[in-house]
Design goal:
Layout: E1 5-6, E2 13-14, E3 72-74, H1 76-81, E4 84-89, H2 99-110, E5 118-121, H3 125-137, E6 141-145, H4 151-159, E7 163-166, H5 175-185, E8 188-189, H6 197-202, H7 204-212, E9 217-221, H8 226-240, E10 249-255, H9 262-266, H10 288-298, E11 301-305, H11 310-318, H12 326-329, H13 331-340, E12 349-354, H14 365-371, H15 374-385, E13 388-389, H16 390-397, H17 403-415, E14 419-425, E15 428-433, H18 435-444
Parallel strand pairs: 4-12, 5-6, 5-8, 6-7, 9-10, 9-12, 10-11
Antiparallel strand pairs: 1-2, 3-4, 13-15, 14-15
Helix pairs in contact: 2-3, 3-4, 7-8, 8-10, 16-17
The structure holds zinc ion.
């Protein structure tokens, strides 16, 4: 085996699942025999993730949909700014996001251990990727996705035949649930926070950037931090094999509303609220420490982007001919901010990573207007006065409704993030409006 993972502290060997830390607490790292790798041989091979096979795990059989090898496009926007700006268009991957790089490696690697199938905790893109690659491999896929998720991603997961388990409000809450499911059902877990092997696929993004551009700066939308860290690891390996002398500066972009990683870099108060850039809604990222190491070791920085800048970002990318999801669009306002602060030099080569397609859909509040019918609206109005429990709401509605139907409405309103449990008294569960529910009710008049 060319890839070997041995704990540097206690010597324990890992090959099946590779968690971020050994059971003794030491951090695990996947490494290769770098002296034997000649990166200049890659250019004679077909483009794609497996072009870099010397720096990928050995697998029994490659499960591939021709992922990676995505185009790098010069941004017109750069001309206006007087900078060299390029867009790495990851929407061109088979399922429309960079996560296909993870899925091809993790599924190929896990095949021998996945008789019962695969599982992933994801806020959408990795779930869609797993669904596609598990289908390709003829194995079942289980996806643990949060309540807040774009409809397009759900459609994609369902169409590709994966099972969906809705759990938690943001993706990090589903990680241990997926671990439990993997253990209980004997599934191979490809969640990057539980198994580092998929990041080996994601790091090929760095190899492609090196081959096409040799960037000085890489601007990366950052939710869980796993993409940022994999790109960092890719460049560390390029240094190891003698291809690169200096690491490009890695710049993490987060939403002002959910900023656990960027706030740490910038020394601001971190927030953990839902953002329209849903794929960046990771409240307490497991890989935060690794992401911070990547930013600091590369000499990079972080940028925060406001909700009102997301549409601008999306529009400016559309002007380049690229339709990106909000979570990817943050890179444009981030670039503009840094340019305004004169962060860049004239001959810098700046790469923007567009991680995922806009076709995956928005999570818009207006969409809810179609699913919140009369009874739900009445319930919201009741709860705008005070917290109430189920039976009390049923009585107050004064409608020929079954008691169970009211509970169903409450569950749905809760899953839409419009109401929440406020407290319990004995066996009574009291519900009240969330901030979102309150805003929703206002817009409904
Ligand atoms: Zn150990």
């Amino acid at each position: 085996m060319k890839m070997k993972i041995r704990c540097p502290s206690c010597g324990r060997l890992y090959s099946f699942l590779i968690p971020p830390r050994c059971s003794c607490g030491e951090r695990l790292e996947i490494s290769y025999d770098y002296e034997k790798v000649d990166p200049f041989r890659w250019r004679n091979r077909e483009p794609g993730v497996w072009r870099y096979r010397e720096l990928l795990p050995d697998v029994p059989e490659v499960v591939s949909l021709r992922e990676g090898g995505t185009p790098l496009i010069r941004a017109k926007l750069g001309r206006e700014l007087g900078l060299n700006v390029f867009i790495k268009d990851e929407t061109r991957n088979p399922t429309g996001s960079f996560r296909d790089r993870l899925a091809t490696v993790a599924v190929s690697h896990g095949m021998l251990h996945a008789e019962n199938g695969f599982v992933v905790a994801s806020n959408g893109n990795a779930a869609a990727s797993l669904a596609a690659y598990a289908a390709r491999a003829g194995r079942p896929a289980y996806t643990v996705v949060p309540k807040l998720i774009e409809q397009g991603k759900l459609n994609q997961i369902v169409a590709l035949g994966a099972k969906i388990i809705r759990y938690g409000e943001s993706v990090d809450e589903g990680i241990s649930y997926a671990e439990g499911l993997a253990e209980g059902k004997g599934l191979y877990n490809v969640t990057p926070e539980s198994n580092l092997v998929g990041l080996e696929g994601q790091k090929t993004l760095a190899f492609e950037l090196w081959e096409d551009l040799k960037p000085t700066h890489v601007i990366i939308p950052t939710g869980s931090g796993s993409n940022l860290y994999s790109i960092y690891k890719g460049f560390v390996e390029l240094i190891e094999v003698g291809a690169v002398e200096e690491m490009p500066k890695l710049i993490a972009v987060q939403a002002e509303k959910c900023s656990p990683i960027a706030s740490e870099v910038l020394g601001t108060e971190p927030k953990a609220e839902p953002t329209k850039a849903l794929a960046l809604y990771v409240k307490s990222p497991v890989m935060k420490e690794l992401a911070l190491e990547a930013i600091h070791a590369s000499g990079g920085t972080a940028v925060l982007v406001g909700e009102d800048e997301l549409d601008l970002g999306q529009r400016l990318l559309a002007g380049e001919g690229i339709f990106a999801e909000y979570a990817s669009s943050v890179i444009v306002p981030a670039l503009l901010k840094l340019a305004e602060e004169n962060y860049f030099e004239r001959d810098d080569r700046i790469a923007l990573i567009v991680t995922s397609s806009g076709l995956k859909g928005h999570y818009s509040e207006s969409r809810e207007k179609f699913t919140v019918g009369g009874t739900k609206l009445e319930i919201l109005r009741l709860l705008s006065g005070r917290s109430m429990y189920g039976y009390e709401i049923w009585e107050a509605l004064e409608k020929p409704l079954k008691y169970q139907a009211v509970y169903q409405h409450l569950r749905e309103l809760e899953s839409m993030g419009l109401i929440e449990e406020t407290h319990r008294r004995g066996r009574r569960v009291y519900y009240g409006l969330t901030e979102r529910g309150r805003r929703f009710l206002e817009t409904m008049g």
